[in-house]
Structure prediction request, 590 residues.
Amino acid sequence: MSLIDRPRIAFIGLGVMGRSMALNLLRAGYPLDVHTRSRAKAEPVLAAGASWAERPADCLREAAICISIVGFPAEVRQVYLGSEGILASARPGSLLIDMSTSEPALAVEIAAAARARGLAALDAPVSGGDVGAREGTLSIMVGGEAADFARARPIFEVLGRTLVLQGPAGSGQHAKMCNQIAIAGTMIGVFEALTYAHAVGLDPETLLASIGAGAAGSWTLTNLYPRVLRGDFGPGFFAEHFLKDLRIARAEAQQRQLRLPGLALAESLYQTLIERGGAQLGTQAIYQVLSEPDA
Amino acid sequence: MSLIDRPRIAFIGLGVMGRSMALNLLRAGYPLDVHTRSRAKAEPVLAAGASWAERPADCLREAAICISIVGFPAEVRQVYLGSEGILASARPGSLLIDMSTSEPALAVEIAAAARARGLAALDAPVSGGDVGAREGTLSIMVGGEAADFARARPIFEVLGRTLVLQGPAGSGQHAKMCNQIAIAGTMIGVFEALTYAHAVGLDPETLLASIGAGAAGSWTLTNLYPRVLRGDFGPGFFAEHFLKDLRIARAEAQQRQLRLPGLALAESLYQTLIERGGAQLGTQAIYQVLSEPDA
Prediction:
């Protein structure tokens, strides 16, 4: 596709993930109109050629594609369904892509509201963290119509490497919940193993040499366990965002009479971490809670 | 090393793991005297050239190296410390290698009793399952003296690929406990994710395409999740043996005032599985317990 074919994109949300993704789109030749809550966070993206918009709705004066990646479902609702939101201002035929991790039911609601106004919407949360966002190697889990997924694909190809349509609206969010549920259990297993290792006097590096490549192996063991050994509890992925995801997953599970005791346990452990001031730590800081002696 | 240098080995325990390991030693040129509880299980190994011994002690008439891999700590105790056991019959200077997954404290007890009789002992449990045993690619986690580890190394090289001395007697068992604790949490996460996926109507194969290669990735997700999708709940690794391991780990953790709530949860889930007749199923059958609707 020639540069002239690259449609203008409204891009909302320039946090750790959004900023890197916006820069990748600019580098790939997409003109961007950007908005984020605090303008200071937009500076690197404006310096790279994006235009500033004062309100989310203003991003869509020229653009017919909107990408958002914000923190919490309440912000997603505000951006799309608020009185000055996207749905009130987008031109017919526009494609709205929410890449936040948010509530599946909200994704369904936005898709229905969009359809009622002649717009199309995809939910497309991502996995792969800050590194994946920077390197354009994200896994993008998409819910929506196949034709809209096809329309978004050239953009997704700039942002990620694993691009999968999971099903109708909300399915991208559901897939992301599965991703977080699997991570939650793995995180508990890996950091309980480290807790045990310390308590019995094993050398954790030597232990990793034995267990890292076998049936206990995981991304968490390979990537986060060494960070904890170095005393690095920084994000990575914020504990408070992970807790938000686990809460969404558990609400969905409860609606369906699923028990999921591991998910409930992870939620309580991250809740404890955050009550102790760990909201801005990385998810691996669950080790700090697990490694405390029994009360 | 020429064939003439290969010392005679007493090999006790010819279950799924032991049989493959004994066959690999025979193929590598080690003469074996074998014993196992039911002689029928020894047939493939006898056909490959091993000699039969009626009692564990009889294996050590000529051999000065003993390898055991049996099911439960009570059997380990019987084989080594029983009135007709190995310690009562081994010649001074013999090396005793227990590759069962067993209690760290028992490994320490055997090592001390062995030392008192002029013998050497290693605890050397393995990870890698039936496939690893067959292909000689096990991870072998060793506790004991460095000189004894060096003496055992040529044998370990036949049986495994990742050979690590974890520390003094009992450390191999402790490392294996860490391995099982990490697996336990990962297993819960992976099969709760699958439970959720089914409940919300995602296609589990399509889901795996999104989450398998990212931060949710694990050996369990890659290897056991597809077995469950095929309806294959066979072992692999027996649920009853895994429960035994988790109980040992939890007892050790309790002695040290560690909480390890994920380990406790896994223990209760496998307990439930086994109460329902799942003792001889593979560990992935935890999915059957997790996927039941909430009571």
Q: What stands out?
A: Chain B has two domains: 3-168, 174-291. Chain B touches chain A through 73 residues (CB under 8 Å).
